Amino acid sequence: MMTAVTNFEAKPLPKSTRALREDVQTFLRSYKPKLTEIQKAKSWMGFDREFSKALAKKGFIGLTVPKKFGGQGKDGFSRFTVIEELLLNGMPVGAHWIADRQSAPLILKYGTEEQKSFYLPKICSADAFFCIGMSEPNSGSDLASVRTRATKIDGGWSLSGQKIWTTNAHLCDFMIILVRTSGTAEDRHEGLSQFIVDLKQPGIDIRKIRDLTGDHHFNEVFFNEVFLPDNCLVGKEGAGWQQVISELAFERSGPERIYSSITLFDAWIQHSRDTALTSDAPVLAGKILTELITLRAMSLSVVAKIEEGEEPVIESAIVKDLGTELEQMIPHALAENLATNPESVVSQELLSALAYGMQISPTYSLRGGTREILRGMIARGLGLR
Ligand SMILES: Cc1cc2nc3c(=O)[nH]c(=O)nc-3n(C[C@H](O)[C@H](O)[C@H](O)COP(=O)(O)OP(=O)(O)OC[C@H]3O[C@@H](n4cnc5c(N)ncnc54)[C@H](O)[C@@H]3O)c2cc1C
Asked: For the chain, what are the domain ranges?
């Protein structure tokens, strides 16, 4: 039980990452005209091919991918440093985000040499963008019940079914999809497999869904007898469940899960400085900052465990659960603070960004696995279930 506490050992970022951080900062200063606060608040959702291309040219995508596959062959701490700088500056990371975070590591771990040689260099040069085909209308938290099916045919597989909530499917080149290749939904973890689907194949219909803020990033994706050549299967047929769990660990473990509201916090601090701090603003700033610093240390300790070859699935779930709670609290707490100081004039830009943050923040604890599911995993890790 106490390992739940002692597993989080503070690990400072290695000194070697300092030069890399300076490189990213220099690049970001030179790259773009100033982003608006709302563009920064949309960092994860910002899909900007040109920006991703420019990052790739500097070697800031595929940091942990070996050099022979077009990556930088660096460690997880280097990736942490780059991601942290991008998020602190609210950069539009959406285009390469999923491929860099989870598709490349998945292909590296389970893909054939042919798949590694074909996909990884394209991911690292920002020439191939990926989306995630896990959720279905009745299979979200209960992912093992997916019904989309690939049936073996001559030379490949025939894919039919439906995925939902697929972020940026309409803009991406490929989807890594979890499907049933044998048995029925009742077989749960048995008979699932993963494939790489080229989204330009005939038989694929991508339909947009608008979110609460009016933006289009989600989609429904329908597959009607789509032909998948044999070389699209990732890993082993029937081993999809174990593979997807490992993919979700990549999805949940990074610094991504603590910084969604960071640029709002930064803009509010600036506003409070400009308008002279009110008595309650420093208290709120201190509370948010101490939580962020603690979470950052926990997130870094997860990176260290991954670097040591461990699979810190429970630790990742703890960081994501606590991280998203803070990310969700920030816009509301800042808005409340501004409301208690009606005499200070708040810029329209900050108000719009805060309104956006308040509307979008419920998604933080849904994407990548809901709070209840993560807490179930944590309870299991503590031997309570
Ligand atoms: C911004 C965003 C981006 C996303 N992008 C993608 C994507 O690119 N690809 C993809 O495949 N999916 C994506 N998703 C979908 C996401 O993974 C699912 O929304 C999530 O897994 C929850 O599934 P669901 O929506 O079906 O809700 P449900 O599973 O129906 O859950 C509804 C509620 O019931 C609770 N609940 C469910 N089961 C239990 C249980 N056993 N015990 C206690 N409570 C429970 C949940 O915690 C939740 O609060 C995205 C979601 C969001 C919000």
From this structure: 3-128, 132-239, 254-381
Distances from the Cα of 379 to the Cαs of 25, 310, 373, in angstroms? 40, 20, 10
What is the pTM (predicted TM-score) of this model? 0.95
Regarding the beta carbon of 140 and ligand 1, being less than 6 Å apart is answered yes
Cα 44 to averaged position of ligand 1 atoms, centre (Å): 18
Q: Tell me if 160 CB under 6 Å of ligand 1.
A: no
Angle at 138 between CA 135 and CA 144, to 5 degrees: 60
For residue 263, which of 28, 22, 42 has the smallest C-alpha distance? 42
Distance 367 CA to ligand 1 centre (A): 7
Per-residue pLDDT of the chain (385 residues; tens, 9 = 90+): 566 777 777 778 999 899 999 999 999 999 866 899 999 999 989 999 999 999 999 999 999 999 999 999 999 999 999 999 999 999 999 999 999 999 999 999 999 999 999 999 999 999 999 999 999 999 999 999 999 999 999 999 999 999 999 999 999 999 999 999 999 888 889 999 999 999 999 999 999 999 999 999 999 999 999 999 999 999 999 999 999 988 887 777 678 889 999 999 999 999 998 887 667 899 999 999 999 999 999 999 999 988 898 888 889 999 999 999 999 999 999 999 999 877 778 999 999 999 999 999 999 999 989 999 999 999 998 999 8
**Atom of ligand 1 minimally distant from the CA of 363:** 53
Going by alpha carbons, the residue nearest to atom 18 of ligand 1 is: 140
Our answer on whether the CB atom of 373 is closer than 6 Å to any ligand 1 atom is yes
Show the tokens assigned to 244: 């997807």
What CATH class is the domain 3-128?
mainly alpha
- CATH for the stretch 132-239: 2.40.110.10
Q: Across-strand partners of 204?
A: 223
CATH superfamily of 254-381: Butyryl-CoA Dehydrogenase, subunit A, domain 3 (1.20.140.10)
Which atom of ligand 1 lies nearest, measured to the CA of 141? 29
Cα–Cα distance measured from residue 148 to residue 180, given in angstroms and rounded to the nearest whole number? 6
Ligand 1 contacts CB of residue 370 (under 6 A): yes
Cα of 166 vs centre of ligand 1, distance in Å, is: 12
Q: Which of 259, 262, 245 is closest to 368 using CA atoms?
A: 245
